[in-house]
Write a structure and sequence with these properties.
Layout (H helix, E strand, L loop, with lengths): L20 E7 L2 E6 L3 E6 L13 E7 L2 E7 H4 L12 E7 L2 E7 L1 E7 L5 E3 L12 E7 L2 E6 L1 H5 L7 H4 L1
Parallel strand pairs: 2-11, 5-7
Antiparallel strand pairs: 1-2, 1-8, 3-6, 4-5, 6-7, 9-10, 10-11
Length: about 170
């Protein structure tokens, strides 16, 4: 992220394929990577309007340039302890199947190139809550990144109609 502009910049000097670019963000001092093909933009925290009768991890909705977008606290989605937001906390706007949602993350770290050959698929039981969202693990420069499954991450459980939220 550029210190002067606050905009995340992608390094196009390498021979990067779009499918190999991942945005890395931090939650609870762990690195998570999401394919950049889902990422629309990264914004500072905005006022969130609470909405009744939705899961606790959906914090509410924001109005982003006249578009209403639901916002998910990713920590809570991962069943981690909720923390107070700070100046590094931000909202990552992602889109999948024409549905937009904002992910509240502790901090955005970088955009990196991760090829399919660098992703080790997870083999553990997918029924565990944290494994539902992780489709693989990579190690780049001696740092581990958990590769997230976007569809699983933004699926709403508990029989809630997605059209109400999204």
């Amino acid at each position: 992220m550029s210190e002067t502009t606050g905009v995340l910049e992608i390094d196009n000097t390498q021979d990067n394929k779009v499918d190999d670019l991942y945005m890395v963000f931090i939650i609870d001092n762990k690195k998570y990577a999401l394919s950049s093909k889902y990422v629309i933009e990264i914004i500072e925290m905005l006022p969130i309007t609470k909405v009744p009768f939705i899961p606790d991890y959906i914090k509410g909705i924001i109005n982003l340039r006249s578009t209403i977008i639901p916002v998910m606290d990713t920590r809570m989605r991962f069943k981690m302890e909720e923390i107070e937001y700070n100046e590094r906390t931000c909202i990552v706007i992602i889109e999948n199947n024409d549905n937009k949602i904002g992910l509240i993350v502790d901090a955005v770290n970088e955009v990196i190139n991760i090829s399919d050959s660098q992703i080790m698929k997870t083999t553990s039981n997918k029924k565990e809550y944290d494994q539902n969202f992780i489709k693989g693990v990579s190690e780049i420069n001696k740092e581990v990144q958990f590769i997230l499954d976007c569809e699983e991450l933004i699926s709403i459980e508990g029989g809630i109609n997605k059209e109400i939220i999204m």
